[in-house]
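Ops channel
N.P.: pipeline sanity check, posting one input/output pair.
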């Protein structure tokens, strides 16, 4: 390096750091060439470092081309280039450069800077053999004592799925810092080793904020919500990620009310939620179906000027509104993100229309998407097929199931086949549905069998129902709803002996029936009605007399209690009172007593709404001029002026 003795102008570095484009950097490079400074080890290193880290378009290629003209590259130049390649999308090149460095330089101590990047690169591309080679070189030195190096080895092993090797290195580290502990904890969590993570967390001498966040997130994702709660309560310091992780833990574990409460608590304490927290709480509200809460969060989004396109806010709002039964508001959000729609927004809109029974509209949205040359994904088709099945559009369903494979090369998954089974089953083509299950190239899941079982109940097909129920029970012997559906088929056919047999089988296997449960929110308070459970005494008599009043009023409009919906072998006159105690009727009565005239009533039901309650709601919506929205296990029903949005097809 002949130029080493020439002094470097002090202005070079600051002007390099001010470069906003590669063109400016190139101008500095030509200046260096003209002034004979281009080979100066200091300037060339700085120039390569700038290009390797700047993330400007083509900067890495430019760094590489300068590098190729350097006759004797030093450790620093190798380090910046290896790091640049590793972090900016070409980890393989980083590994190749490291190997090249070994042939050029022999002073091993200078390697330690590049080691973290090369281990990271090996982890990223799954280069196990190369990773082990570098590791064995390191073992021969004292470099493993350097936490920078040893932490990168731990992370590489975790990335490669070699969890025991990672732990081994971790245990042998003379000094562990927070990065070591947190890497090991999140590695365990990612691999589903919850117990090991828990034990390691206990052993931690100092539990920092990041480790608490890792634990809350990991416990939440693995269904251990109580443990996540313990860590949350114990954490002495909490940041927005701690709160968001706990809210998501509640959402993932179907505890939407707790998620919503925690979100409110967060706001009360003056902590500004981040975008993922808002998305999570919207998911909680979708789960609950409480539109008032949803509108409140929407107002929060608007007043805090959170962009609908940031994160998944747009699709979360579309999802929330459609699941709360306000499809027009969902459409409004969808229109507002029209300039920068992501595939997630399209997918939420299509599935939103699907669960609201609007098959034709879902198809129109899909055709818009095709016209705009946007490529649908497997979730788009899941929504579309669901839309067809809920709207009874069998031909369209068959057609697009083919299009998905032939035009878009999407291989149908078990859920897509499930939609096809549902499509045929709901339309009464039970034999076709069974043929799909039997001939699909992958094993059908219990949901597909259960969907066909529901269709068999609907069309009173005992023959297919029995076959299907036995298969479903084999797949999930503890799922009470399968036994209930089977006993429903027998009850509809008047085969009470078989009903008793099913009940005995349930008892024998320790399977308990999930009681019907309806939830209604009035004036911000949530009221739950569970069949067979004592209501609050203040309510019970008032509600029962309200239901009786409704029944006699509706009878004048031609309502006849559908006693076939009572699947118990009891006297005819008892059947009617059992029918009156269905949880959604109690919730409706409560709603009518406590809401002002004309205000919509929202009910969430944990199981499928029965035919009698469905008919009942239709008549109430007409006689009492109330819009009633019921979300049952499967879909939405919007009752307005005597008819339902599902067109009696559910
Ligand atoms: Zn009912
Ligand atoms: Zn309906």
């Amino acid at each position: 390096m002949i130029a080493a003795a020439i002094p470097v102008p002090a202005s070079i570095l600051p002007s390099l750091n001010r470069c906003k484009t590669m063109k400016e950097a190139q101008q500095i490079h030509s200046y260096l060439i003209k002034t004979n400074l281009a080979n100066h080890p200091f300037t060339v290193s700085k120039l390569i470092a700038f290009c390797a880290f700047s993330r400007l378009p083509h900067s890495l290629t430019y760094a590489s081309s300068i590098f190729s003209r350097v006759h004797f590259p030093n450790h620093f130049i190798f380090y910046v280039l290896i790091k640049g390649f590793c972090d900016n999308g070409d980890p393989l090149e980083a590994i190749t450069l490291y190997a090249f460095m070994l042939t050029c330089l022999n002073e091993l101590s200078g390697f330690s800077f590049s080691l973290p990047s090369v281990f990271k690169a090996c982890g990223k591309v799954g280069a196990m053999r190369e990773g082990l080679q570098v590791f064995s070189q390191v073992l021969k030195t004292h470099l493993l004592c350097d936490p920078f190096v040893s932490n990168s080895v731990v992370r590489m092993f975790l990335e490669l799925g070699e969890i025991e090797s990672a732990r081994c290195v971790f245990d042998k580290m003379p000094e562990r810092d927070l990065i070591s502990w947190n890497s090991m904890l999140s590695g365990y969590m990612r691999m589903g080793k919850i117990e090991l993570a828990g034990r390691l967390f206990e052993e931690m001498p100092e539990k920092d904020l990041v480790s608490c966040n890792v634990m809350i997130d990991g416990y939440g994702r693995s269904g251990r919500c109580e443990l996540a709660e313990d860590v949350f309560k114990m954490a002495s310091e909490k940041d927005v990620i701690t709160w968001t992780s706990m809210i998501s833990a509640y959402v993932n574990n179907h505890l939407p009310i707790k998620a919503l409460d925690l979100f409110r608590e967060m706001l009360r304490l003056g902590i500004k939620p981040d975008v993922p927290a808002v998305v999570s709480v919207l998911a909680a509200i979708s789960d609950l179906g409480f539109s008032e809460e949803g509108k409140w969060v929407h107002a929060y989004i608007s007043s805090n000027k959170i962009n609908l396109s940031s994160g998944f806010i747009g699709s979360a709002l579309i999802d929330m509104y459609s699941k709360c039964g306000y499809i027009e508001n969902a459409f409004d959000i969808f229109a507002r993100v029209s300039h920068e729609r992501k595939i997630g927004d399209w997918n939420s809109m299509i599935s939103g229309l699907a669960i609201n029974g609007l098959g034709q509209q879902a198809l129109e949205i899909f055709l818009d998407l095709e016209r705009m040359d946007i490529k649908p994904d497997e979730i788009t088709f899941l929504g579309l097929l669901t839309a067809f099945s809920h709207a009874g559009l069998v031909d369209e369903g068959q057609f697009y199931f083919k299009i998905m494979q032939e035009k878009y090369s999407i291989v149908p998954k078990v859920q897509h086949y499930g939609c096809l089974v549902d499509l045929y089953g709901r339309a009464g083509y039970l034999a076709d549905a069974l043929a799909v299950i039997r001939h699909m190239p992958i094993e059908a899941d219990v949901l597909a069998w259960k969907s066909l079982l529901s269709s068999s109940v609907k069309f009173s097909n005992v023959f297919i129902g029995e076959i299907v129920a036995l298969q479903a029970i084999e797949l999930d012997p503890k799922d009470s709803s399968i036994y209930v559906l089977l006993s429903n088929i027998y009850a509809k056919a008047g085969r009470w002996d078989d009903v008793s047999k099913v009940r005995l089988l349930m008892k024998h296997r320790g399977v308990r029936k999930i009681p019907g449960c309806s939830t209604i929110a009035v004036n911000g308070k949530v009221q739950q009605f569970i069949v067979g459970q004592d209501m609050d005494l203040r309510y019970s008599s008032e509600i029962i007399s309200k239901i009786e009043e409704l029944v006699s009023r509706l009878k004048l409009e031609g309502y006849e209690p559908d006693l076939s919906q009572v699947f118990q072998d009891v006297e005819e006159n008892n059947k009617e009172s059992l029918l009156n105690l269905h949880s959604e009727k109690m919730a409706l009565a409560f709603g009518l007593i406590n809401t002002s005239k004309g205000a919509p009533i929202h009910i969430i039901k944990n199981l499928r709404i029965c035919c009698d309650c469905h008919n009942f709601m239709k008549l109430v919506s007409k006689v009492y001029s109330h819009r009633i929205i019921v979300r049952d296990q499967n879909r939405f029903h919007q009752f307005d002026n005597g008819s339902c949005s599902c067109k009696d097809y559910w």
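N.P.: looks fine end to end. The chain is about 65% helix and 5% strand.
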